[in-house]
Amino acid sequence: MPEPKGPVELPFIGSILSLRENPPEFFARLAADYGNVARFSVFGREALLLSHPDLIQEVLIEQPKNFRKSRGLQLAKALLGDGLLTSEGDFHKRQRRLSSPAFARSRMAKYAEDMVRISERHVASYPAGVRVDANQLMMRLTLAIVNKTLFDADVSAEADTVADALEVILNNMDRILNPFTEILNVLPLPSTLRLREAQAKLDKIVYGIIADRRKNPGDRGDLLSIYMSASDDEATGAMTDKQIRDECMTLFIAGHETTANALAWALYLLAANGEWLKKARAELREVTGDRPVTADDYPKLKLLQNIFAETLRLYPPAWTISREALVDTQIKGYEVKAGTTVVMSQWVMHRHPAYWSNPAQFDPARFNPDRAHDRAKFTYFPFGGGSRQCIGDQFASIEGVLILAVFLQHFEPCLIVPGYTAEIHPMITLRPRGGMPLVLRGVSK
Ligand code: HEM
Fold first, then answer.
1. Which of 38, 155, 289, 311 has the fewest other C-beta atoms within 10 Å?
2. Residue 254, SS3?
3. Given this model, what pLDDT does residue 214 score?
């Protein structure tokens, strides 16, 4: 049986220092130095980094029952409860089945209209000619879209409270990577208290909305309507308020920051690659002429779709997926002991020189349909795969493209200085370090 190799490590703490410093680069180095399966450890916990598409397929598609979500996400349960992201086994399966109508193709048309309308309102208010933080702008915009599509207009009056509370929560999410989280959470630290307060505020809003809807039932075309009416023949019937709360909280968290980060990176890549910006604007003019963007334009905006896909390749918002082995098993001949964490990194695979030519180059043409055969599954997996694949993948792709389209009808993104290079800030998601400073140049339609 092949024995995975890995770096020489310090006793007990293992590779935590390298992992803390720059985790995506640490993983890229492991893959380069030790190949398809690299071994490392953190505080005595054994881990394997898998960097071959067949090995990733084995974990996510062939043997999902032998693995569960890793410890980090188990800890996120304190906030997200038993929502889709954190639940396991039969309960997850049931919740996924109950949730899927909310993401059906037939619903997307309505969401897409909301996406365009809200984007128009936001983007039209952006200032031209001054430095902005595109990450923050995109965060507010995607949050407004989740608010509308999830809760109809219910939270608009409290949008700022929701945004502020979510910011506290997101800024504390890195805690779940902290091995001392369980201790931190019981200590009355100011950050713990702020986190609890933010969570209580969100809970109050979400439970308030659920109570209102129970009094005035009916389909309002949003995700919440689906959850309120969801029932399961085989089991106990409707979803309880607690389950609805957990799913809503999950979608609040999972459904906006990822897309916002991707959009900030897309605007940066367009600002840094003028020739693609020009081509994108030309496509947009060809599709829309002089009129504003509509939801129906999405399928025709092929280049913008490729640009969004290429952005997710270079800057995957979910830059790593981990699982914990529940039993002793084998992955393509490699022994994996129960309790081992297996890590599969989009950051590594999306830039792997064995699978991509000029991996660091921004080249949206990679995603032309005639080049699809170049790509093996799991050399590109921004939305994961298998039974835990992102339920919002269509939602995010439509949202990303439509927001870019609306944006480019109003502005050209420009770098703050020629050659400016944005750095990554790998949290749970791959944020730009210190935000994404850009200057927006107004354009005539
Ligand atoms: C570019 C944007 C997005 C990216 C890159 C992304 C990525 C991912 C990935 C990689 C997973 C799988 C995690 C794992 O297997 O451990 C996931 C799961 C999930 N995502 Fe997304 N996501 C995005 C947008 C969204 C949106 C817009 C929503 C909802 C509106 C959403 C909701 C979810 C949920 C609920 C799960 C858990 C699914 C399950 O386990 O059944 N995501 N996402």
1. 289
2. helix
3. 87
390, 401, 403, 404, best to mutate for ligand 1 pocket (most atoms within 8 Å of CB): 390
53 in contact with ligand 1, CB cutoff 6 A: no
- The per-residue pLDDT for 179 is 45
Interval between CA 69 and ligand 1 midpoint (Å): 13
Residue 87 lies in a domain: no
Closest CA to 377 of 62, 48, 54: 54
258 lines ligand 1 (CB under 6 A): yes
341 CA to centre of ligand 1 in angstroms: 20
Ligand 1 atom nearest the C-alpha of 83 is: 35
Residue type, 390: C
Beta bridge partners of 46: 41
Does residue 383's CB lie within 6 angstroms of at least one atom of ligand 1? yes
Task: Look at residue 21 in the predicted model and tell me its pLDDT.
Answer: 81
Tokens of 74: 């188990």
Amino acid at 99: S
Structural domains of the chain, count: 1
Residues of the chain short of pLDDT 50, as ranges, are 176-180, 182
pLDDT for res 276: 98
Residue 437 lies in a domain: no
How many CB atoms within 10 Å of residue 164? 12
pLDDT of residue 176: 47
Give the CATH number of the domain where residue 55 resides.
3.30.43.20
Structure tokens at 9: 């490590």
| Domain interval for residue 13 | 1-81+319-365
Q: Is the CB of 388 under 6 A from ligand 1?
A: yes
Query: What is the length of the chain?
Result: 445
**Is 274 inside any structural domain?**
no
pLDDT of residue 411: 98
How far is it, in rounded angstroms, from Cα 445 to Cα 439? Answer: 18
Residue nearest to atom 40 of ligand 1 (CA): 388
Please work out whether the CB of residue 73 comes within 6 Å of at least one atom of ligand 1. Answer: no
Contact between residue 18 and residue 26 where contact means Cβ atoms under 8 Å apart: yes
- Residue 250: CB within 6 Å of ligand 1? yes
Encoded tokens for 37: 């399966």
Phi/psi for 404 (5° steps) reads -60, -40
Report how far ligand 1's centroid is from the alpha carbon of 250 (Å): 10
Give 390 Cα–ligand 1 centroid separation in angstroms.
4
d(CA 264, CA 276): 16
pLDDT of residue 155: 63
179, part of any domain: no
